[in-house]
Amino acid sequence: MELEIVEESVSEVTRRLWERSLNYRVEIVPSIPDEIRSLPCRGAAVEIAGAWEGLALLQTTPQLAIDVACLMFDLPRLHSSSPERPASHQKLHLPTLEMVQDCLKELTNITAGNLKTALPEPCSLAIPKPLEFLHWDDFSFEGFILTQIAFLCEDFAPDATYFRISLIKRGSG
Questions:
Q1: How buried is 152 (Cβ within 10 angstroms: 0-12 exposed, 13-18 middle, 19+ buried)?
Q2: Cβ atoms within 10 A of the Cβ of 52, count?
């Protein structure tokens, strides 16, 4: 029962945030493809404490992380379907690493904050932390993955770009 409620909440909260607030077209996929999972990714995590203890984790391809930062900091976006894509003669202003990290932390915090409604009360969120991974499975936390949902961001045709939300419960499964 807990898994079904949490998985549905993660899916709904994530889609709403990425589609309505950020204007990305996203689709749930069975998993991140192996050729993508073996590459570096960026992310952020926020610990959840209280009646439910664990971690909310966001992981994205570097390309998507940069594009989100461009969107949130009102910089020209780079991906091919963006109407704000700069002309070839314009100078690109890429976001700094700090800007990218700030955006990923904020998205993770918003996601975790919205997921609190599906978790036992009371719960509180820690300050989100940026994370860099050598590959998508390069992460350890004392707990087990309660749910992990992968998304394809359709706005990057023909390149596939992905992100993943994981909810990790402290303790043993």
A1: middle
A2: 20
Tens of each residue's pLDDT in the chain, 173 residues: 455 567 888 888 999 999 998 888 899 999 999 988 888 999 999 999 999 999 999 999 998 999 899 989 988 876 544 444 444 445 567 899 999 999 999 999 999 999 888 888 899 999 999 998 888 887 777 888 888 999 998 876 556 689 999 999 988 65
Among 139, 143, 149, 150, CA closest to 168: 143
Among 120, 68, 130, CA closest to 95: 68
Q: Which CATH number fits domain 2-170: 3.40.1550.10, 2.10.70.10, 3.90.850.10, 3.10.450.50?
A: 3.40.1550.10
| The model's pTM | 0.87
Q: How far apart are CA 89 and CA 170, in angstroms?
A: 51
Cα 68 off chain centre by: 10
Give me the DSSP letters along 46-70. Answer: EEEEESS-EEEEEEE-HHHHHHHHH
The whole-angstrom separation of Cα 3 and Cα 30 is 17
